What does this fold into?
Amino acid sequence: MPNAAHGGMSGRGLFSPSYSIPLIIKLFRGMIKFFYNDLCDGGVDYDFGKMSKDMTPVREGPFYGIAVGSWLLATMNGVRVNTNLEAITPEGNAIPGLYVIGNDMGGFFSNSYPQMFGGTAHGKTVCFARLATLHAVTGSIYES
It folds into this structure.
């Protein structure tokens, strides 16, 4: 596998050689300045519904960026869970205190896997880790 960090995959169409690092930085800064910081200043996240208390403007660096690529990383038939992310027996009974998240959790992708959306597995893992933690601590996946 070529090292993507050194441009080894640019010849395969995964990275465009026409974008320079300074241009990418300029685009990123513009996106932060004109979109996210404006939402923070207004106290309302129209894009994702983030609560105003959790909105923090990004005004000073250093800033870092990463290249995200899509790979098939999920299992289609992992451990089945209930709505509290607890593992369940073949009969559907919860195994109290045994939480399963991320790629070990089965049943999430039903009939297909979204191959072209980088970060899907990470987002699912982070989201469900938070919910499982809430349930383990409070007995509910909902914040009070």
